[in-house]
Design a protein that fits this description.
5 helices; 2 domains; 222 residues; 3-stranded antiparallel beta sheet; two-stranded antiparallel ribbon
């Protein structure tokens, strides 16, 4: 714990054999745990307070049957002694912690599952900021063959110049977004969209077409 320091994450998992009670508005123990405490539980709480850790089990409201992590049927004993512990200011966002009773792992302890979310930084690019400017044009293809004509080239350049100078931009993202949008709009207006040609399958003949139609009619009419 000391060697890890404050820059790296800490996740403690397992059987701590301690009962930690419940507390309201506490950074270590939550309000939805078990209302009992023992010596090991007090030691565990002291450890978490020293290193700013949180025992996550008690912060999510579930039925008690989904909270007890250990149960001995012969003596009719059950308790919460298996925990998932993280830093109080962890980058991991704990969404839920509960017991999975249906999983049999050959033990009198139940499996404890946590739903954890880790935000990934640095994934947002400048392209995403102005994606709305050109998301409708991303998958369009244009009739570039018409660009062979000089009149089309002149018309495209003139209209594009008018389009780019008509708007006022206030930042780099607005300028870039306007350029992308204008390029697509002028290409669609001057060149036109290029429609996909339907590729004819070599095996699809008129004879097969008639046979398929007969087959469909036979199935439809029984």
């Amino acid at each position: 714990m000391i060697n890890i320091g404050t820059t790296r994450e800490i996740i403690l998992l397992g059987d701590f054999n301690g009962r930690t009670d419940t507390k309201v508005n506490n950074q270590v123990v939550g309000p939805y745990g078990e209302t009992r405490i023992n010596d090991n539980g007090e030691r565990l709480i002291d450890l978490c307070e020293s290193y700013n850790l949180r025992i996550t089990n008690g912060y999510f409201k579930h039925k008690m049957v989904h909270k007890y992590t250990w149960e001995q049927h012969t003596r009719k004993l059950k308790s919460i002694i298996d925990y998932i512990i993280v830093k109080q200011k962890s980058k991991f966002q704990i969404r839920d912690v509960r017991v999975q009773r249906g999983i049999n792992c050959g033990s009198d302890h139940y499996v404890v599952r946590a739903k954890m979310y880790l935000p990934i930084r640095g994934r947002t690019s400048n392209k995403d900021k102005h994606n709305e400017n050109y998301k409708n044009f991303t998958y369009l293809k244009y009739n570039l063959d018409s660009f062979q004509h000089k009149c089309t080239q002149y018309l495209y350049k003139r209209r594009l110049d008018e389009k780019l100078t008509a708007k006022e931009e206030f930042g780099l993202s607005e300028i870039y977004g306007n350029i992308i949008k204008s390029l697509h709009e002028m290409a669609k207006e001057v060149l036109g969209e290029k429609h996909k040609r339907q590729i004819r399958k070599m095996w699809w003949t008129e004879e097969i077409k008639v046979l398929v139609a007969k087959r469909k009619n036979f199935i439809r009419n029984g």
